[in-house]
Amino acid sequence: MSWRTGEPNLAADVGSLPLFGGTVSARLEATANEGKTALSLAVSGSDLDAALMTASLLGGHGVAGRLHGNLDVLAVGGSGPEMLAATSGGGRVTLSEGRIFGSPLQRAVDKDKRSIGLGRASMDFTIEGGLVAGDELLLDFEVGHARAGLTWDMPSGDVTVTFQPSPVFEGRDAPPVVSGPLWEVLLAR
Description:
mainly beta; 62% strand
């Protein structure tokens, strides 16, 4: 890890750090000017344990598997909430060898099982004004393939997953929509 400071800037590089059973690298730059801070963050993760990460960051469980991804964001503002609402950027996330269990997301796919295999999930996403959006969330469940759109309003914490028509949802009036606070949608209760 390396870092440097200089009025009014801060930069930090994390080359390759073992974390959550995998590897994470990151670069952070912060600049303060006229009462506002600009924060630039680039993070890349490889072969992370999704269950360990979910438990550590969100305080619960509901997803297991190997997580890979990258994130590149910029936030500018005079306070934490202002910066969160102004966050922009994008990234990609992929889950392999996965399993979801006990969460509203899992029950939307198969309410009769306690858990469901998720061989692969992937999504490219954008972030604009604190809103994370991906319209091509690809999900390869053990019961079939599904596509969904996902939005996450970072300031409020609410996430919505809107499934598209798929044979996985045959016999239902419409594909499910799952929404609520991020931790309630993804975590087992």
